Amino acid sequence: MNLLSYRGVQPQIEAPPHFGARAAVIGRVRLGAGAWLAESSTIRADGHDVRAGRDLMLGPRATVHIAHDLYPTLIGDQVTIGEYAVIHACQLGDGCVIEDGAVILDGSTIEAGAVIEAGAVVFPRTQLAGGHAYSGRPARTLRPLAGGELRARREALRAKVTGSPPDGRPASAFDLTAIDSTAFIANTATLIGHVVAAANTSVWYGCVLDAVDGEIVIGKRSNVQDNSLLRCGPGGRIALGEDSTVGHNVRLGGCTIGDRSLIGIGAVVAEGTIVEDDVFLAAGATTTPGQVLRSGKLWGGQPARALAPLDDQKRKLIADTIPTYCEYADELARVQKAAAAAR
Questions:
Q1: Alpha-carbon distance 319 to 10, whole Å?
Q2: Do 295 and 258 contact (CB within 8 A), yes or no?
Q3: Using H for helix, E for strand and C for coil, what is the string for 229-247?
Q4: What's CA 130's distance to the chain center, in Å?
Q5: Of 281, 192, 277, whose CA–CA distance to 240 is shortest?
Q6: Architecture of domain 173-342
Q7: How is the chain split into domains, by residue range?
Q8: From CA 46, how far away is CA 125, in angstroms rounded?
Q9: Are 274 and 255 in contact (CB under 8 A)?
Q10: 299 has which bridge partners?
Q11: Cβ within 8 Å of residue 200, ≥6 positions away
Q12: 3-162: what CATH class?
């Protein structure tokens, strides 16, 4: 099992969980009995606590994280979370069902017995009552749950998760000379082909950077967060500038992202997209092929459109993420090295 400490705090697990290939649990985590962590799922509690009750099910490539020194993530009993979903710095009540690709954002509270449908995004600091299904971006009430529906949807999602076949991901195969000695590559990330990682960059747990017959370049101090998928076709290129962030569970095709930009959790950036310097692309947003996201703006929606000028608060969030992730990376590089040496 890939259980890693953070600043001397080891995950605490009530009973041995099911632990899929490349799953990772890091830092200030407390898990109740009966946890099922599918392939490449990640629970990362470096900057705050993650506490989950009994019988948690976390689907393939799903991510649980916190907001540094601001919000923990608190998960009740018998919560079921689908493939590629993100639970970020929020609270989930007992029995909630979070379907594939859904995103729950910072400071939100989902009361017991709610269903968040596939692909929905719960915006920050939202409170949703139990006993209802929610869908959309932002997530809104779809309807009350019918009698027995919560149990049926939980059982259906759990059956899907437990029956998920291995993803057949190859071992990493990349040019080590292109990875700076100060870069952090998480031990469950997969890098294929020509990947360039500059000084103080980081590639996090469960990520796939696939540059077969192409190139992926990550500029200084930039980070690619857990379970993001970066793929460029033959002759293609993904370029990430300096001091930029690719959030959890993002999908990037061949594109260019400038300096001091942030690609929000669960966003999809299409082939040929150009993201200029100083751009904030909101969680769950999608771009269209060849779209240009102009500098100095907040972009969001499906497809993405300019929503507002980039204010001081958003600029600060982008800037503050960089030293935080450099700090996380320095510590976990040390922990990974020690764990590997001890095997």
A1: 29
A2: yes
A3: EEECCCCCEEEECCCCEEC
A4: 25
A5: 277
A6: 3 Solenoid (2.160)
A7: 3-162, 173-342
A8: 21
A9: yes
A10: 281, 306
A11: 180, 182, 183, 220, 221, 326, 329
A12: mainly beta
Under a CB-based contact definition with an 8 Å cutoff, are residues 296 and 310 in contact? yes
Instruction: Give dist(CA 113, CA 222) in Å, integer.
Output: 38
3 state SS of 176: helix
Q: Are 66 and 73 in contact (CB under 8 A)?
A: yes
3-class secondary-structure state, position 142: strand
Using CA atoms, how far residue 226 sits from 65, 100, 301, in Å, is: 9, 16, 22
Between CA 105 and CA 124 the distance in angstroms is: 5
Reading the chain (343 residues) residue by residue, the pLDDT tens digits are 799 999 999 999 998 889 999 999 999 999 999 999 999 999 999 999 999 999 999 999 999 999 999 999 999 999 999 999 999 999 999 999 999 999 999 999 999 999 999 999 999 999 999 999 999 999 999 999 999 999 999 999 999 999 888 877 777 776 777 999 999 999 999 999 999 999 999 999 999 999 988 999 999 999 999 999 999 988 999 999 999 999 999 999 999 999 999 999 999 999 999 999 999 999 999 999 999 999 999 999 999 999 999 999 999 999 999 999 999 999 999 999 998 888 7
- What is the CB neighbour count within 10 angstroms for residue 148? 8
Q: Do 3-162 and 173-342 have matching folds?
A: yes
Contact 251, 270 (CB under 8 A): no
From CA 152, how far away is CA 266, in angstroms rounded? 27
Rounded to 5°, angle at Cα 230 from 19 and 171: 50
Q: Which helix (H) or strand (E) holds 156?
A: helix 149-162
Encoded tokens for 224: 């690619």
Distances (CA, A) of 11 to 8, 28, 37, 62, 137: 10, 6, 14, 18, 33
181 Cβ contact list (under 8 Å, min separation 6): none
How far is 145 from 286, CA to CA, in rounded Å?
Answer: 29
